[in-house]
Design a protein that fits this description.
Elements: H1 7-17, H2 19-36, H3 39-65, H4 71-94, H5 100-123, H6 134-156, H7 161-192
Length: about 190
């Protein structure tokens, strides 16, 4: 049986999948930083995070440019993004660098995104698999930046850390509520038509 895979699609998927080992290396850097407070490990984690952000930007851009976008590719992208965000947040909670509430918010938005996307797909054939909204996109960028941002803030403002973390969590909760209300309103309009 011959497997016919476009090299472009393979390259896009490799750029996506590279985020998994980068995430593992980043988590190792986080752990080492927590044990030694050596700034080198903080820098390694931040550089790895930047590589992950660039990978996420490049894979989507290449897929669109080469016209190899697909639902499977979008699912792989979502999995790799979620792996980075969730793995880093779990590690940071364990190291007392993040709030468990941020992880709860991320899980809620991920579940909401997947379920509402399935509902949208059921009612609207031929549309893209995922159901996006503007505030949800802002939130997803914030979720993506959260691990590196929290690490930088923690090292620069340890005296005010609890206050900063609480305020950031409240901002995420507020944006989550607004995004959910907008999404549920949009999906109900889709269904009623």
């Amino acid at each position: 049986m011959q497997i016919n895979i476009k090299k472009e699609k393979l390259l896009v998927n490799l750029v996506t999948i590279i985020r998994i080992p980068f995430t593992v290396i980043g988590i190792f850097g986080l752990y080492q930083y927590s044990q030694s407070a050596d700034n080198l490990w903080k820098i390694i984690f931040i550089l790895i995070s930047i590589c992950i952000y660039i990978s996420d930007f490049i894979d989507g851009r290449l897929a669109r440019q080469w016209k190899v976008t697909s639902d499977k590719g979008a699912r792989l992208d979502l999995f790799c993004d979620s792996f980075y965000i969730i793995s880093c947040l779990i590690t940071m909670i364990w190291l007392k660098l993040s709030s468990p509430w941020i992880l709860v918010i991320v899980f809620y938005k991920l579940l909401e995104f997947i379920l509402l996307s399935k509902i949208k797909r059921k009612f609207f054939k031929g549309e893209t698999f995922y159901f996006y909204d503007k505030i949800g996109r802002v939130l997803s960028v914030l979720f993506y930046l959260t691990p590196a941002m929290l690490l930088i803030l923690h090292t620069k403002a340890q005296l005010y850390w609890d206050n900063i973390l609480a305020r950031y969590t409240v901002i995420l909760i507020g944006l989550t509520i607004i995004s959910s209300l907008v999404k549920f309103r949009k999906i109900s309009i889709y269904i009623m038509q």
